[in-house]
């Protein structure tokens, strides 16, 4: 389980000064949690964010020893430096399932692309799911080697999802398909 050490933010200290000290300003909130301004070490945050993405549970540990199970809800990125400037953490209500969009990872080699000169069309890049926080996958693998013919498609119901995970889109939604390359006249 991923975790981050947090400190309550002194609102008298400006956000730029927080960043200069090697931290980023952040906030956590949730249905049963009041909005609380915090600071997080920038290096620790970036490492955790890279591993967690937006669909892995992160334990926020404060100085008093309290722990908050949360998801990274939003990160504000500097447009020139690509450095995180601010983060929002959504604290999960205990015993409740959460809905998130999990990235799809396309793996394998499609015979329709390799042998028949088809073009792989990735219709969706992520998948809306619902699960208990501890059951949330970081991503879902889409095996494109099943696309053998130019007419083959991969549907949402064909995806291997872990136990306890429910897909929140229609089972007949297309995830990937093959397009035929056509010569322009």
Concise overview:
The chain has 185 residues and is mostly beta strands.
Could you explain how this protein is built, in words?
Helix content is 11%, strand content 45%. By secondary structure, the chain is mainly β. The strands form 3 sheets. Strands 1-3-2-6-5-4 form a 6-stranded mixed barrel. Strands 10-7-9-12 form a 4-stranded mixed β-sheet, with no helix packed on it. A 3-stranded antiparallel β-sheet has the order 8-13-11. The protein is elongated and about 65 Å long. The mean pLDDT is 90.
List descriptors.
185 residues; mainly beta; 13 strands; 11% helix
Helix/strand-derived category reads mainly beta
Q: Could you report the average pLDDT, rounded to the nearest whole number?
A: 90
Arrangement of strands in the largest sheet: 1-3-2-6-5-4
User: Order of helices and strands, N to C?
Assistant: EHEEHEEEEHEEEEEE
Q: Indicate the proportion of strand residues.
A: over 45%
The amount of helix comes to 10-25%
Question: For this entry, what is the oligomeric state of its chains?
Answer: single chain
Compute the number of helices.
3
């Amino acid at each position: 389980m991923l975790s981050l050490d947090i400190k309550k933010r002194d609102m008298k200290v400006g956000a730029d000064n927080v960043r200069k000290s090697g931290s980023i300003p952040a906030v956590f909130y949730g249905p049963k949690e009041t909005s609380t301004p915090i600071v997080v070490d920038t290096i620790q945050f970036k490492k955790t964010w890279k591993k967690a993405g937006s669909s892995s549970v992160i334990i926020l540990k404060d100085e008093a020893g309290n722990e908050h199970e949360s998801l990274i809800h939003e990160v504000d990125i500097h447009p020139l430096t690509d450095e995180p400037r601010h983060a929002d953490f959504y604290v999960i209500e205990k015993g409740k399932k959460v809905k998130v969009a999990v990235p799809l990872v396309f793996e394998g080699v499609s015979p329709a692309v390799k042998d028949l000169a088809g073009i792989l069309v990735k219709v969706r890049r992520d998948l809306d799911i619902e699960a208990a926080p501890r059951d949330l996958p970081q991503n879902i693998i889409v095996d494109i080697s099943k696309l053998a013919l130019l007419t083959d498609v991969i549907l949402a119901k064909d995806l291997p999802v872990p136990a306890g995970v429910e897909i929140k889109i229609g089972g007949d939604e297309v995830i990937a398909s093959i397009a035929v390359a056509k010569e322009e006249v």
